[in-house]
Amino acid sequence: MVVGRGGYKFQNWAQTYGSSPELYFQPTCVEEIKEILDLARQRSKRVKVVGGGHSPSDIACTDDFMIRMDKMNRILKVDKEKKQVTVEGGMLLTDLNKELDKRGLALSNLGAVSEVAAAGVIGTGTHNTGITHGILATQVVALALMTASGEILECSEATNPEIFQAARLHLGSLGVILSVTIQCRSAFRLKEIQFSSSLQEVLDNLDAHLNSSEYFRFFWFPHTENVSVFYQDPTDKPPASKANWFRDSFLGYYLLEFLLWISTFMSGMVPWINRFFFRLLFASKSQRVNISHKVFNFDCLFKQHVQDWAIPIEKTKDALMQLKDWLEKNPHVVAHFPVEVRFARGDDILMSPCYHRDSCYMNIIMYRPYGKDVPHQEYWVEYENIMKKVGGRPHWAKAHTCTRKDFEKMYPAFGKFKGIREKLDTTGMFLNAYLEKVFY
Ligand SMILES: Cc1cc2nc3c(=O)[nH]c(=O)nc-3n(C[C@H](O)[C@H](O)[C@H](O)COP(=O)(O)OP(=O)(O)OC[C@H]3O[C@@H](n4cnc5c(N)ncnc54)[C@H](O)[C@@H]3O)c2cc1C
């Protein structure tokens, strides 16, 4: 029998949100998950499942029952011919990457970190970049879901197709994702070329950049014209690195944290910091080749506040120029670098920010040097205003102030998803404060 423990304190990775679940469970099998849901029903408790706990919001928080899936982390099946792998929902992508390496396979795209769970990354619409690639959930070809009643639903394009299109970006609201089947590709190495440019050049030639590299992204350094462009493309070349020494040794980043901390007393330093670090870390061209996941992932060294909206791709220039103009007109507002700009192909996943449109993701951050909060409210509000004006949809895991009324306008399939959720979870077992704002 599975036993829940009291007194556990949950904190997300950035330590910006947490909760104190009444009972905390770490089930090891499907039967134990069913027991937990049975107990929750008997006691009228809500349930929240947590994967890697990396969401920079309260989406995974609960004060009732929390299920951490870290003991359900096995590979269940590998279909070498189809290059598909079925894993338990709690498997971290770090472990999956290693297992795929051994089998000559790889995920075709990945976000910045892999300490996230297979069911968790798809739960919030995690994405990377590359206009021929959708968000990570588009790599999912099947999944198994345990609903509030304890029933197990197998879902794919062929079986329960409507629930499948909802569950590929489930928001933790449909039940417990037991397993996920992912379409992989043959293992590959990526060559990354990083070079500097200006915002005007990149925005004027966006199509050319998008067509020049499979995984194109750029960093804009606010309060400057500086841009760092990253082209990442599959290669047969052996691993090699001609990178920037400061960047590789992380020394630059420790210096950055210290200077950002000083800038909390002298905010006027921030534009200077952005310029200085562009010169130190990104002004010269660098190049490296490595296994795909080692190039997709990078060490996120500092805690930060973050917003990341997806806007229609044709609005990229308009939105970035509006943000730049506003910062120039309001010099008392400071913005940390980088504004990371990435791209994703449109899809048909009901709650995907890229639903039915190719999109540009514009990620803004404010670091919290040594855990200290930096004022960012004015910047946050104006960024959201601009994103809304250009028809944006917020990343589900990151900060936003949207509620049901906004989502109804943003998502043509919102009503459909809501209907599926209400049918699968009639008592609201999987709701929490975050989801109440989304649905009520
Ligand atoms: C350092 C860092 C870098 C990041 N980089 C990127 C990036 O490059 N691109 C990007 O798009 N995002 C990025 N993110 C956001 C991150 O990818 C998402 O928050 C992702 O959802 C985290 O996965 P997780 O396993 O930690 O999920 P959690 O935060 O644990 O959970 C996310 C949601 O999934 C639900 N859930 C988890 N497991 C299950 C399950 N088995 N069944 C049902 N529901 C479940 C939870 O209840 C919650 O609703 C980053 C976050 C951090 C902290």
From TrEMBL:
<keyword id="KW-0472">Membrane</keyword>
<dbReference type="InterPro" id="IPR036318">
    <property type="entry name" value="FAD-bd_PCMH-like_sf"/>
</dbReference>
<keyword id="KW-0560">Oxidoreductase</keyword>
<dbReference type="InterPro" id="IPR007173">
    <property type="entry name" value="ALO_C"/>
</dbReference>
<dbReference type="GO" id="GO:0005789">
    <property type="term" value="C:endoplasmic reticulum membrane"/>
</dbReference>
<keyword id="KW-0492">Microsome</keyword>
<dbReference type="InterPro" id="IPR006094">
    <property type="entry name" value="Oxid_FAD_bind_N"/>
</dbReference>
<dbReference type="GO" id="GO:0071949">
    <property type="term" value="F:FAD binding"/>
</dbReference>
<feature type="domain" description="FAD-binding PCMH-type">
    <location>
        <begin position="17"/>
        <end position="187"/>
    </location>
</feature>
<dbReference type="GO" id="GO:0019853">
    <property type="term" value="P:L-ascorbic acid biosynthetic process"/>
</dbReference>
<dbReference type="InterPro" id="IPR030654">
    <property type="entry name" value="Sugar_lactone_oxidase"/>
</dbReference>
<protein>
    <recommendedName>
        <fullName>L-gulonolactone oxidase</fullName>
        <ecNumber>1.1.3.8</ecNumber>
    </recommendedName>
</protein>
<dbReference type="InterPro" id="IPR016171">
    <property type="entry name" value="Vanillyl_alc_oxidase_C-sub2"/>
</dbReference>
<dbReference type="InterPro" id="IPR016169">
    <property type="entry name" value="FAD-bd_PCMH_sub2"/>
</dbReference>
<dbReference type="GO" id="GO:0016491">
    <property type="term" value="F:oxidoreductase activity"/>
</dbReference>
<feature type="transmembrane region" description="Helical">
    <location>
        <begin position="251"/>
        <end position="273"/>
    </location>
</feature>
<keyword id="KW-0060">Ascorbate biosynthesis</keyword>
<dbReference type="Pfam" id="PF04030">
    <property type="entry name" value="ALO"/>
</dbReference>
<comment type="pathway">
    <text>Cofactor biosynthesis; L-ascorbate biosynthesis via UDP-alpha-D-glucuronate pathway; L-ascorbate from UDP-alpha-D-glucuronate: step 4/4.</text>
</comment>
<dbReference type="InterPro" id="IPR016167">
    <property type="entry name" value="FAD-bd_PCMH_sub1"/>
</dbReference>
<dbReference type="GO" id="GO:0003885">
    <property type="term" value="F:D-arabinono-1,4-lactone oxidase activity"/>
</dbReference>
<comment type="function">
    <text>Oxidizes L-gulono-1,4-lactone to hydrogen peroxide and L-xylo-hexulonolactone which spontaneously isomerizes to L-ascorbate.</text>
</comment>
<keyword id="KW-0285">Flavoprotein</keyword>
<keyword id="KW-0274">FAD</keyword>
<dbReference type="InterPro" id="IPR006093">
    <property type="entry name" value="Oxy_OxRdtase_FAD_BS"/>
</dbReference>
<keyword id="KW-0256">Endoplasmic reticulum</keyword>
<dbReference type="InterPro" id="IPR010031">
    <property type="entry name" value="FAD_lactone_oxidase-like"/>
</dbReference>
<dbReference type="InterPro" id="IPR016166">
    <property type="entry name" value="FAD-bd_PCMH"/>
</dbReference>
<keyword id="KW-0812">Transmembrane</keyword>
<dbReference type="Pfam" id="PF01565">
    <property type="entry name" value="FAD_binding_4"/>
</dbReference>
<comment type="similarity">
    <text>Belongs to the oxygen-dependent FAD-linked oxidoreductase family.</text>
</comment>
<keyword id="KW-1133">Transmembrane helix</keyword>
<dbReference type="GO" id="GO:0050105">
    <property type="term" value="F:L-gulonolactone oxidase activity"/>
</dbReference>
